[in-house]
Specification:
alpha+beta, two-stranded antiparallel ribbon, 2 strands, 12% strand
């Protein structure tokens, strides 16, 4: 699967959080899975047919992998906003 999508370069931004690898490492101070990989990037794929989509960072890929429903993600965003959580508070 990974051979069909070129690996991200150093200026690549995650389509989810819009951060580069450097910004992700500056914010989180490490890779999410340091024992498995030396990069923050994971190739996202459709779980129904295994078609590759794009590279996402670990955090965004885990979010998408656990909840592939756009409706649920929109509802969860409204839930967080209801309690004052926004991009500036992170």
């Amino acid at each position: 699967m990974k051979k069909t999508i070129p690996f991200p370069d150093k200026d690549y931004e995650c389509p989810g959080c819009q951060m580069t690898e450097k910004k992700i490492l500056d914010k989180w101070k490490s890779f999410q899975y340091t024992n498995r990989s030396k990069t923050v990037w994971r190739l996202d794929h459709d779980h129904n047919n295994l078609t590759p989509r794009e590279y996402l960072c670990d955090y965004c890929n885990n979010t998408v992998g656990r909840c592939e429903s756009p409706k649920t993600l929109r509802t969860l965003a409204k839930y967080l906003e209801k309690y004052g959580v926004n991009d500036e508070s992170l």
